[in-house]
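Sample entry (360 residues):
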Amino acid sequence: MKLLKCLVLFSVISCLCGDLYAGPASSKLSALAESLIKGYESKTEGKATLAVFPFASEEKLQKQRVGFAVSELMSHRFVAHPNFTVVERGEINRLLSEQKLQSSGVTDSATAAKLGQMVGANALLMGNLNKVDGLYQVNARIVNAETGEIVASGYTELPVDAFADDAGVYTNLVPQEQTLGIYGVFNYRHNANNLQTFTDSQWGGQVVNNPRAFTSMMAGGGLLYRPHRRIQINAEVVTNIGDGEYVEQVYYYSSPTPGYFVDKRKTKMTSASLMTSYVAPLSAKWNYNAGMGVQFLVSGDVPPGLFAKAGIEFRPQSRIGFGVNLKYEFKTVEFRSEWSDNVMMRMNPLSFETVLSMYF
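Predicted structure, serialized as tokens:
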């Protein structure tokens, strides 16, 4: 329970500290969004439902998804503000697709106001951008969806290189929803296995079992699917690699002549799991995740058990991710002797994982 509280606290801190990792371009767009918020609040009272549209740009920049990236980075500041409720990106994309405006963007306030009303928004974030001498020039505005009036406007310039670093996740063609991926995973844990020595009787002799500390390493892979930009489903299979010797067994026998021999049991486990997790950005290249799932041991007479995971992922580009996770199993995995009910192996519920993912 203490670990679960730590996992929850980690997720909350991650949410609150995301802007600490923002790059220079993200910081400028956040400042631009803040100026728009102040301008809007100076003229309007109460809370607003905001529809965020991709910023209009020339065809080459549209193909690079620069306008989408600018609007997405700015939207983070509005999502965090208590006076704004931001319409889901999926709803905006669906509407733009129906109106055949995905590639060209929304260029005039009247059209944007009409579309905003269709998704229940009373305020719109829109704008346009140009590329001039190594800079992106960004003009942004908040528009009243009922009147088409520009309530607040602002301008900033972004170095192209800095923007590419901050917005790499958004400027490639990996979708934010309906995302598919494959990944490899390596799981490591140290098991104290501090159990009592016990003796079993079998085959006319005795077996003295000496449980011992051991390290278990498991490797495998899985498939992931994001039906929603914040929700991820994982199906995974992992199996043992290396030799985790968890008990030393001394067999004493009296026939045909008295004697003994020593054997060592090694871990042999394969597990399959299904997990649902919440995924959110810390910055343009960093994500955090937290979720729960159910695990099935294919080998061993162990019933299914629940587990929780929390971790972070670094994406140097949106098709590739490197992640680290903490995993906690709520049901302790134990193996018992086949000749008695004594426990000879007990796994540590806490383990550490590294993950390499590819997204499509």
